[in-house]
Specification:
The complex is a heterodimer of chains A (481) and B (95). Chain A has helices at 8-16, 22-35, 46-55, 100-107, 152-159, 176-181, 216-226, 261-264, 270-285, 297-318, 336-347, 350-363, 372-392, 417-421, 425-429, 457-471; strands spanning 41-44, 69-73, 111-116, 165-170, 185-188, 208-213, 256-260, 289-293, 395-399, 433-441, 444-451. Chain A is of the alpha/beta class and 481 residues long. Chain A has a single domain (1-481), classed as Amidase signature (AS) enzymes (Alpha-Beta Complex), CATH 3.90.1300.10. Chain B is mainly alpha-helical and 95 residues long. In chain B, 39% of the residues lie in helices and 4% in strands. Chain B has a two-stranded antiparallel ribbon with strand order 1-2. In chain B, a hairpin with a 2-residue loop joins strand 1 and strand 2 (87-88). Classes of the chains: A alpha/beta (481), B mainly alpha (95). At the A-B interface, helix 10, helix 11, helix 12 and helix 13 of A face helix 1 and helix 2 of B.
Amino acid sequence: MSYLNLTISELHALYVSGLTTPLNVVNEVIAALERDQNNILEQTMYEEARLFAASLKEVEVDNLLWGIPFLVKDNIATKGIETTASSNILNGYVSLFDAEIITKLKNQKAIPIAKTTMDELGMGGCGMTGHKGVTLNPYGKDNNRIVGGSSSGSASGVASGYVPFALASDTGDSIRKPASFAGLVGYKPTWGELSRHGLFAFMPTLDHLGFLTRSVFDVSLLYDLTKGYDVKDFTTNIQKSKNSVETLTTSLKGRKIAVIEPIFAKLTNETLLKEFNNLVAKMEAKGAKVSFVKFDELLLEAILPTYLILSCSEATASNANLTGVNFGNAKDGETYEDIVLNTRTEGFSKQIKYRFLLGNYSLRKDTRNNYYNRAQKARTLIVKAFNELFNEFDAVMLPAAPSHAPLINKEPEPNSEVENNYLAMANLGGFPSLTIPFALDKGLPLGVNLTGKAFNDALILNLGYQIEEITGLYNLHVGQR
Amino acid sequence: MDKKIIKELASELYLSLTPEEEKEFSEQFSYFKAQAALLERIPHIDDVEATLFPHVEKRTYLRDDEVVETLPVDEILSNSKNAKDGFVIVPKVVK
């Protein structure tokens, strides 16, 4: 019997019934990871995982994470394991501590098993810019599609069925876009719900930790078990939020959903449009009220530049500590300045250098008002406009991407920037945001996104669960049992 | 974008660029500026209050006066390629 391609709940049921053990499962996961052809791995933790699994003897019936293996995006600190965020500048850097989220999962007896590839330092949306090269999407018959980024290895690994879930991070759409391309459930909770202690900072006021899974129940469970205030991260929320699992089965009756018409009008994929409209009809048949609403198009167009300016600016500061002196992949130099210059010049890829230049330009004394300061003001207006919508509606619902996963070597379809980048609004406002699969287009997954008011995590997950019930796309994966 | 400014920006970031990178970045800046110009079209944008964080909770950042464990210095320095006796060694800074 194979133990791959199972959700957390399914694997837990096997443990409880005594049909397998964590060590059996871990060994099978390792064998599958060793056969992987999609370039998902940075570092492995196989021996640590085997030891941990072997120590788990008595199944904890009420602990669904007991013995569950998982993957970790490589910008999350793991004690004793090289952690590079897929950047050459951090080659050889070994974390001295576990990120708080890793500690919480280990305390639940979940088993971290490998670190996954990503776009370098989280800056990218294609899974092609990390120092190990292109990470592939397991969907598509010719193995030639991107899986999206920046959480590329985590997404590809979960879609391949190796593990039930992976840790990931999301600054613009880095969990929710790959989820769409890989047929996964991808969730970033309200900003501050999960401790970011141990997450490498990209843009701290937009950075979120989150999860990639193959069922809404699993992502709800993970959210409930890992959220909460952490003294080591002063941006975690003090107010206690509702648990989500217990309200997943609440019906759609009376729920009010907004579809932003100016974004929807830009979509052209016929299957996507047909399936989305089918979904709307089915949701309405279950009592939801779905409205196509107007939205200020100037503000929709402002989402990308606001994100771009703010994220590049803060990234220059967040990564200023990457000098090679205190840690990292130092290069030689005759002076202190030479060491820093050579380390950074050789350590960062061209794309990262370009982003830093944009950030530095936006922060300069003579240009700051027209770039960084103005983007902060645009952020106010964008967030205000969405909050006004959330006063009237439970959630905004839209396709998470204009189409299925693009081919690696093909130019993207000529969509505008709006429908490709609107998901960043959830980072600007810190809103809870969930992508789940809702249809297949010639065998390739299409994702739908739900985003709601900050702290309404339980409501967003409830809506996602109800949509999963409608579509039946539960535990979608490409693996073979 | 003027290549002189590109060089200045890179220098401030402790980055050295190849002539090809300078040329490429100079051309790419036009896309960035076109995107940034979209913000100018928003009426009265510069009169709006800036948003720094998604939400802010009232709290105190004072911690209890308790002893907590911190990482040993030797462990912290183990990630530096050139450390000795509790210090990171760099070439002479004061000239």
